[in-house]
Design brief:
- With 369 residues, the protein is mainly beta.
- It is 7% helix and 42% strand.
- Strands 1, 2, 3, 4, 5, 6, 7, 8 and 9 form a nine-stranded mixed beta sheet that branches. Strands 11, 13, 14, 15, 17, 18 and 19 form a seven-stranded mixed beta sheet that branches. Strands 23-22-25-26 form a four-stranded antiparallel beta sheet, with no helix packed on it.
Length: 369
């Protein structure tokens, strides 16, 4: 009887253990994770990063979205069936169903096709395998081409008081094409090691134009008989750059302002020409004087009654009083007396002191009646 009882207990124990084992087996997770997203994408602002069709370049993002009933534990990546380490992108959020990793393709061989895939594991060791993707890895970013200088040519002599620079940029990279994203810095000065003068890089497509007239709020003028140096630095979207050699040009000799003509009142046909007298006897004098160098001009104005009205001979400006100096505008209002022959002339002076002598300039005439 005692042996039978022991046997019954043994059978009961075995049944209990078996039942517990069965319950344990029923609770063990056997469901693999689900991969709902496996994507390769470019990364904004992270150096060379490009994905186009079946090509990748630089450091790209590997975006994975996976879910699991007990939670995703890890992702393992394979390049050509070899496990590789891919760090999580910042921030490293391991609780989200979406994780972004970094694939640095710069470490790969150029122009070779690679296959990338992943396996996702949960805490129970269940795994899911993604759908492999195939990409051709392109070369790392190369610097842009040296800018092609159009003008002024190296060693040129300019006549004007300002210089206009023109050049064309290009970039050898085609994946992606970068020529339209190039920007430029201009270096300019009187020494062979010129300083950067552009506050912000110049962004322009096709032919680029920049001039010294943009310096000093438009008040920078090239000095006559002076050498100047300049260069252009081309910068691509990934901050790689190239520079032209330092080029030189000179401004030639200063040319004197022109002789000019009266524009109001117009020049008379003869000394006997008259203009109608305004009610207040005031007349605005206006004149036009050319400047071959395009230097800024100021004007000295000479005006007064004819010193010898009965003498029809020519009178030079030096015989008249100067009534205004360094005028910034080409007009001036004067007071007249009726039936009096007046002489006048404006004499221009450029910013370098270039002017014509009053002894060599003939007066303009005007009579009110």
């Amino acid at each position: 009887m005692k042996k039978a009882f022991v046997a019954i207990l043994g059978i009961a124990g075995i049944l209990t253990i078996g039942l517990l084992a069965g319950l344990s087996c029923q609770k063990e997770d056997a469901t693999p994770p689900q991969i709902t997203r496996f994507e390769i994408a470019a990364i904004d602002g992270n150096g060379p990063s490009y994905v186009w069709a079946d090509s990748v370049k630089g450091s790209v993002a590997v975006i994975v979205e996976a879910t699991d009933n007990v939670g995703v534990d890890k992702c393992v990546f394979y390049i050509n069936d070899t496990i590789v380490d891919m760090p999580l992108a910042v921030p490293q959020d391991t609780t989200s169903s979406v994780r972004t990793y970094i694939w640095d393709t710069k470490l790969m061989q150029d122009s070779v096709r690679y296959t990338i895939n992943l396996r996702v594991y949960d805490a129970a060791g269940n795994e899911a395998t993604g759908t492999a993707k195939s990409y051709i890895v392109r070369a790392p970013n190369t610097p842009p081409d040296t800018a092609k200088i159009l003008s002024p040519k190296d060693g040129a002599t300019l006549l004007a008081c300002y210089a206009t620079f023109q050049w064309q940029g290009s970039d050898p990279d085609t994946l992606p094409a970068q020529t339209e994203d190039l920007v430029y810095d201009v270096y300019f000065g009187k020494t062979s090691n010129p300083s950067k003068v552009t506050e912000q890089p110049i962004s322009h497509r096709d032919t680029v134009t920049w001039g010294t007239g943009q310096l000093n709020e438009g008040k920078y003028y090239l000095e006559p008989e002076t050498d100047y140096y300049w260069k252009v630095v081309t910068i691509d979207k990934y901050k790689k750059q190239t520079s032209t050699k330092v080029l030189k040009f000179s401004r030639g000799q200063n040319q004197l302002p022109g002789f000019g003509t009266p524009s109001s009142p117009p020049a008379p046909d003869s000394v006997n020409s008259y203009i109608e007298r305004p009610a207040d006897n005031k007349v605005q004098l206006r004149w036009t004087i050319g400047e071959p160098d395009q230097d800024p001009l100021t004007y000295d104005l000479y005006f007064g009654p004819h010193p010898s009205p009965d003498d029809t001979g020519l009178v030079y400006v030096s015989a008249l009083p100067k009534i205004a100096s360094a005028l910034g505008n080409n007009s001036y209002t004067v007071q007249f007396s009726a039936d009096t022959l007046y002489l006048w002339r404006a004499v221009a002076k450029d910013i370098w002191g270039g002017t014509r002598s009053p002894d060599s300039l003939k007066c303009w005439t005007i009579t009110l009646r």
